[in-house]
Amino acid sequence: MAANCSINLSSVFNIPTRSYSHRLSTRHAHPVLVFSVKTEEKLPAVKSPKEKSAANGAGSQSPDFKSTPTATLPSENPINADSSAISTPSRPLPLAAVLCNAVDDLINNFIDNPLRPSVDPRIVLAGNFAPAQETAPVACPKVEGTLPACVDGIYIRNGPNPRYVPRGGHHLFDGDGMLHAVRIKDGRATFCSRFVRTHKFVQEEMAGGPVVPNVFSGFYSLGAAMARGALLTARVALGLFNPSNGAGLANTSLLYFNRKLMALGESDLPYVMKVTQAGDIDTVGRYDFDGKLFMGMTAHPKIDPETKELFAFRYGPIPPFLNYFRVSPAGEKEPDVGILSMLQPSFIHDFAISKQYAIFPDTQIVVNPMDMIVGGGSPIGCDTAKVPRLGVIQRYATDESAMKWFEVPGFNFFHSLNAWDEGDEIVLIAANSYPVEHVLERTHLVHSTVEKVRKI
Ligand SMILES: [Fe+2]
């Protein structure tokens, strides 16, 4: 690292400035390579809520998510109705659960209503974004040509997909993690889709409906936040939900490290998954790196292809707001490096590593409960008065004493592409998203440009 720690802003420029819409083309912000798989007729078709509604003779253009009676939700759930893979408890709900669900409906209809378009399930879960059901392993018919017998592997992706029709608001990031996989072996291909059996998922299965408030859509105003917080507290007190094993969604990405396949979501620990010989996908369980990982881990860790080490971080609302760590190729996690020079929690979705450094964004998306209390907005919002920064720390640092921060006005990156060292310079390639104030609420208005930042 050069002794001069200023950043040359004139070197911040767009490289081939191919702007592209950041609107979700799949269920998550990450574009993924999707196989075109033509399946056998016995594969049940995925129906959108609109198609379901039409088939049921409702005659409505949009499904009426909010009026679904809670106690009968499972049987009316368009996700559940066609699913042969998920069982729903047939026993009647306990009275306490029925009462809590009724209070939930009151909150959704009278405190947090009307819904904003960005979290209205009639809009965000319509058409191509409609919930998809599980699909047990099914053989893919041969359309043309042959698969080499020597190919033995799997293409697998992760994305949010709500298990239950939400009672209230739903942001696209709020769905339960679902894996879709194409297993290729012995010249044949098998397709399968399975939910990640997270602790939240299992508990809501037992409850027969949503229990955990949606993080991105459930706390937009002080009234909604207080009401939902009180309701969740009541559910815990009544034994209807046990928060001791997290409430994450594992819906963001997949990691293959140390011979483990993990489904990741940054608000919780990783979930280890297993692909069976038949191409099915099982959830093994929550993984804490032998008791050394707490709370959560980024969904975008980095593996050094040469050293096979894993580099990652976790962030949250309690100081230190950022904790950086690495894991040996054998899976032994090193202690967290707490970054106390971050004075305010901000949304750190991704980072980058070079051979010598780890580079973190300190973006204008911040956690500020006062926005919710005073302004009636979300506790996660945009601070346009803040100047975004990049933090650089040696990647084998054991403390943050040598960490440097650089102001980068107008540069908010939520996904990196690469970083490398050039002598005393560090080069970062990342997607800059703007206008940043629309990143969470109006994603259809957000654009990203791939930009290069060079620190001299
Ligand atoms: Fe991401």
TrEMBL record:
One family name in Pfam for this protein: RPE65
MF terms (GO), sorted A to Z: carotenoid dioxygenase activity; metal ion binding
Record's cofactor remark: Binds 1 Fe(2+) ion per subunit.
Chain positions covered by the region annotation Disordered: 45-86
Cofactor(s) for this UniProt protein: Fe(2+)
Source species, domain of life: Eukaryota
GO biological process: carotene catabolic process
Family statement: Belongs to the carotenoid oxygenase family.
Transmembrane region(s): none
Binding site for Fe cation: 300, 349, 415
Protein name: Uncharacterized protein
GO CC term, one of those recorded: chloroplast stroma
InterPro entries attached to this UniProt entry: Carotenoid_Oase
Keywords: Dioxygenase, Iron, Metal-binding, Oxidoreductase
